[in-house]
Amino acid sequence: MGEPTPLAGTVAWVTGSTRGIGRAVAVELARDGADVAVHGRTSRMEGEAVRDAVAGLGRRSTLVLGDTRDPAEVDRMAGEIEGRLGPVGILVNNAASALCKPFLAYTADEWRDQLLYKGLAYYLTARRVLPGMLRRGEGVIVNVLSTVGLRDGAGEAAYAATNGAAVALTRALAAEFGDRGIRTCGVALTWADNAFDPEDPAHRAWLPRFPMGRVTKVEEVARAVAFLASPAASGITGAIVPVDAGFLCR
Q: What mean pLDDT do residues 243-250 have?
């Protein structure tokens, strides 16, 4: 017998999935049976590699390129996905970029740009796919978040603010659409191994703040997202699940 495919027949759109966490999520969803739309802003070669990895698992896949902070771009990309794969049943919002600097050093433009990544982009993608989900009476949105939106955003206040907005959006969508078959959850991480350099003393100095003595693995985030997107999590909505190697415990 083959591996179980709880997401068979479902189309997933994973934003920011050309590398790192997004790539791991796209591949994990494909392992669970989903057809996957891979997304990147400009990274065609990396995106094609992820698309091919998904196809190698026997799933349909397509690559869309564009800026999730632009309403017209979001509408175009969603239309391409629907035309090639079908309606989106799982949306994983992941595309973002963190600008770390002291609070008083931010310019207004830098602050605004950070807020657009999750405060606006996560709204735009959800707004685009929700009508179809509501017509079908089912759908899942999973937002990838940072624990800085919940606590300790020193040195990255703008990124903390955009994540705080996305946390609030996650819970608001869960409350507003839960009785119409739509579940919305988040996974919150602090540091994943794709961005952690064990040879860097400044990086290693953070390890005592993680009860597990290490940072999170991208595959662990991906498995949590796949679980929340699956029928096994049918009773879960509005949850912000830490996948943070225990960081929020200290």
A: 94
For β-strands 90-93 and 139-146, DSSP reports them as parallel
- In the block, residue with structure tokens 């992941």: 94
Q: What is the pTM of this model?
A: 0.96
Domains of the chain (ranges; CATH) run: 11-249 (3.40.50.720)
Phi then psi for 93, rounded to 5 degrees? -85, 120
The amino acid at residue 220 is: E
Choosing from 117, 122, 123, 159, which is the catalytic residue? 159
Torsion angle, alpha carbons of 131, 134, 11, 45, to 10: 30
Q: Please give the structure tokens belonging to residue 122.
A: 């996560």
Amino acid letter, residue 148: V
pLDDT in tens, 227-238: 999 999 999 999
Q: What is the torsion angle, in degrees rounded to the nearest 10, for the CA atoms of residue 194, residue 204, residue 155 and residue 209?
A: 100
Per-residue pLDDT tens over the stretch 218-228: 999 999 999 99
Is 159 part of the annotated catalytic residue set?
Answer: yes
> In the 8-state DSSP scheme, what is residue 70?
S
Name 77's Cβ contacts closer than 8 Å, sequence gap at least 6.
Answer: 39, 64, 65, 66, 68
